[in-house]
Amino acid sequence: MIYWGGNPAECHPRHFTKYSLMQKGKFTPNGRKDRTMVLVDIRETPSAKAADLFLQIRPGKDFEMLSALRAIVKGQRVNEETVAETGLTVAQLQDLAAQMKAARFGIIFFGMGLSMTRGKHMNSAQILMLAAEMNAFTKFVAMPMRGHGNVTGADVVMRYTTGYPFGVNLCRGYPRFNPGEFSTVDLLVRGDNDACLVLGADPGATMPQPAIDHLARIPTITLDPKVTHTSRLSRVHITTAVTGISAPGTAYRMDEIPLPLRPALKSPYPTDEEVVRRIRQAVARRPAWLPGRNGKAAI
Amino acid sequence: MTLTIVKNATCTFCGCVCDDIELHADGVRIVETKRACSLGESWFKNHTAEHLYPDALIDGHPATVDDAVEAAADYLLNADMPLVYGMSNITCEAQREAVSLAELIGGVIDSHTSL
Predict the structure, then answer these.
(1) Residue ranges of chain B whose pLDDT lies below 50
(2) Of A38, A127, B29, B31, which has the maximum CB count within 10 A?
(3) Per the CB < 8 Å rule, is A166 touching B27?
(4) Cα–Cα dist A171/A182, whole Å
């Protein structure tokens, strides 16, 4: 069990006890004792206490370390000096590869420390390749550690409606997928969009400044249970009920198990579902959008 | 006041989506969160059923939801490349509506996954 670039002890407090490390299973009757946990991170977080092996790598060297690890797993030669740049030695990587191969069922949980640092999408691709290649030796999977409640649901819903999990461009009337080109931060930093609908997110507080500046320039519409930083730079804000607390529905757990929500409160505000449906109906009542109608070429 | 007890409630604060929480609510706020972690407890206790914010804002001024919906529809339809973003703290049912809307307005749809 490998945690890479994540700190579950602080960010997902029940991950160890409820899902991953401590639970007893058919092939792991002794729970924690039957498992080996490795933590890969750039600093020793509280999660390191739970780990059998902690590997501290240099910031921004995830891709290099993953490349070296993939080569070692496949029995290829690696350059010692290149590996040393990651902050680890070839012997440490060989030991990790041996432990991974010796596992009956391995999993890599990767966090935003991997997917949001230098390399970004390429790091995620590399770790998924590693997990895929490990299947030549033993059963191995990889799973992202999801930060927000139903971000997995967004992946699942977009997958079964458009065929792609995120960053889907429907401008041409059919879905196109290209992370880095159609992903939000890149679009906003380049200034490609001329309107934005923000659903239960606060990019005004979390995104890079050029992206926030662009959101303030264009008509932004925000649906949120609170008046957020994004609401303040939006032309339109609509207050909605809180998902799972006062709005019913379905949410996906990070292992793609759909779970029903059981709200405990009744909100004075409409749900996101209702508001988005009403916006869609209001758009449908208007004449259709045509490319080039404003004198601009189709994107 | 009698407390409403919701058993096996689902917490949507983080991606773990723990579904074994017992909530005690007094109609306005949640007063007890059994089995929730520290993050889940603050998530449940920080959201109330009070009417703290205006229903809607247009250009920073309070407005009705009806007007806000119409204004949103105008902005989104008139855009050449609108973006629908977020989707991580809303239900799957709302996400389906969002995909349908994105298709109708010919836009880009993206979630926190791309960050």
Answers:
(1) none
(2) A127
(3) no
(4) 11
| pTM score, whole prediction | 0.90
B96 in contact with chain A, both atoms CB, cutoff 8 A: yes
State the CB neighbour count (10 A cutoff) for residue B93.
20
Point out the residue among A150, A155, A269 whose CB comes nearest to the CB of B91: A150
Q: Say yes or no for a CB contact (<8 Å) between A200 and B89.
A: yes
**CB-based contact, B91 to chain A, within 8 Å:** yes
Architecture of the domain defined by A2-144:
3-Layer(aba) Sandwich (3.40)
Task: Enumerate residues 6+ apart whose C-beta is below 8 A from A71.
Answer: A77, A78
Q: Rounded to an integer, what is the distance from CA A184 to the centroid of its chain?
A: 13
What architecture does CATH give domain A151-285? Answer: 3-Layer(aba) Sandwich (3.40)
Judged against a pLDDT cut of 60, whether residue A299 lies above it is answered with no
**pLDDT at position B112:** 86
Interface contact A124, partner B, CB < 8 A:
no
Structure tokens that stand for B8 in this block: 């096996």
Contact B72/A at CB under 8 A: yes
Question: Which of B19, B29, B90 is facing A272, going by the closest CB pair?
Answer: B90
Band (pLDDT 50/70/90 cuts) for residue A293 is low
Residue ranges per domain, chain B? 4-45, 56-114
Instruction: Say how far apart CA A54 and CA A62 lie, in whole Å.
Output: 15
Q: Does A163 lie at the interface with B, CB-CB under 8 angstroms?
A: no
